[in-house]
């Protein structure tokens, strides 16, 4: 079976949804923006959504809110979701990449190397309990779309590994590797290889940004030559790694978000998205 994307890319896309988009748990929805037409569709597509409380939540959602249920978050990303508010399914195309339309229980049945032992779980694996599914993103965390807690796509702690301050925690039953993902995280090394690439000079400074940052909320964070994911990657740093910033940054021209000018423990200098860095 052809691989759709690498685990690091898969996790980065999921984390981007959780951190940078308005989302709502909507049963049977794989990334549709809550426009008037989509509200009419999803208020009536499933018994769960027809419950008065759920219907009210859908009706109250803004047009730039995207709906997902648990397995449809996974399928939506694999089906090409881009967060496009002007498209019925946010850019996703039904059954793209030969990924089937299946349930949470059906998805775990498609996975390889399924086990109840969480001691060697890899970034990008599916985590499952009866009727529900999420994705492990590293650092003892998972991403799931659930009506529990925040009622949206959210980052939670994997209780099988341990609880984490600031995160709600769920105990999962088992985990396994999705057949559509290339599991590349094992290729990470402590030393980032720059391959001769050089970062552009920073053009903005804010002294309040200066300090140490921990990589968080992603499977692995690219260091790029400038602000923006379309710039060449100089390598990848792992969740939990500490980097330094001295107040310098650039703005990604496409998203208008900050990318910090960082230095790794190995002396590699480049830009990382501030969305995946937590000041320590």
**What is the percent of helical residues?**
10-25%
The overall strand count is: 20
Number of helices: 5
End-to-end separation in angstroms reads 42 Å
Order of strands side by side in the largest beta sheet? 5-11-6-7-8-9-10
| Structural Rg | 19 Å
Low-pLDDT stretches are 187-193
The average pLDDT is 92
Strand content: 25-35%
Short précis:
This protein has 280 residues and is of the alpha+beta class.
Give the secondary structure arrangement, pairings included.
Layout lengths: L4 E2 H14 L1 E4 L4 E4 L2 H7 L9 H9 L4 E4 L1 H9 L25 H7 L1 E4 L10 E4 L2 E7 L2 E6 L5 E7 L10 E2 L3 E4 L3 E2 L21 E2 L5 E5 L5 E4 L8 E5 L4 E10 L6 E6 L5 E5 L3 E3 L1
Parallel strand pairs: 1-12, 2-4, 9-10
Antiparallel strand pairs: 3-4, 5-11, 6-7, 6-11, 7-8, 8-9, 13-17, 14-17, 14-20, 15-16, 17-18, 18-19
What does this 3D model show about the protein?
By secondary structure, the protein is of the alpha+beta class. 16% of the residues lie in helices and 32% in strands. The chain is built from five helices and 20 strands.
């Amino acid at each position: 079976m052809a691989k759709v994307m690498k685990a690091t890319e898969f996790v980065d896309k999921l984390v981007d949804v959780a951190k940078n988009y308005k989302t709502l748990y909507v049963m049977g929805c794989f990334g549709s923006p809550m426009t008037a037409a989509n509200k009419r569709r999803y208020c009536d597509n499933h018994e769960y959504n027809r419950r008065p409380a759920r219907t009210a939540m859908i009706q109250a959602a803004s047009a730039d809110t995207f709906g997902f249920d648990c397995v449809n978050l996974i399928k939506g990303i694999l089906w090409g979701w881009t967060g496009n508010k002007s498209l019925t399914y946010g850019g996703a195309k039904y059954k793209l990449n030969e990924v089937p339309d299946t349930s949470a229980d059906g998805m775990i049945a498609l996975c390889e190397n399924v086990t109840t032992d969480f001691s060697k779980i890899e970034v990008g694996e599916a985590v499952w309990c009866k009727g529900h599914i999420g994705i492990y993103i590293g650092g003892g965390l998972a991403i799931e779309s659930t009506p529990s807690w925040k009622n949206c796509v959210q980052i939670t702690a994997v209780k099988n590994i341990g609880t984490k301050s600031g995160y709600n925690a769920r105990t999962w039953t088992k985990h396994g590797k999705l057949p559509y993902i290339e599991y590349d995280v094992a290729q990470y090394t402590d030393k980032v290889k720059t391959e001769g690439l050089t970062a552009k000079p920073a053009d903005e400074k804010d002294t309040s940004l200066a300090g140490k940052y921990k990589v968080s909320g992603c499977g692995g964070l690219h260091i790029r030559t400038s602000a923006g994911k379309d710039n060449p990657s100089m390598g990848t740093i792992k969740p939990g790694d500490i980097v330094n910033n001295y107040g310098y940054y650039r703005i990604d021209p496409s998203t208008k978000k900050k990318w910090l000018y960082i230095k790794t423990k190995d002396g590699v200098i480049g830009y990382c998205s501030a969305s995946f860095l937590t000041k320590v």
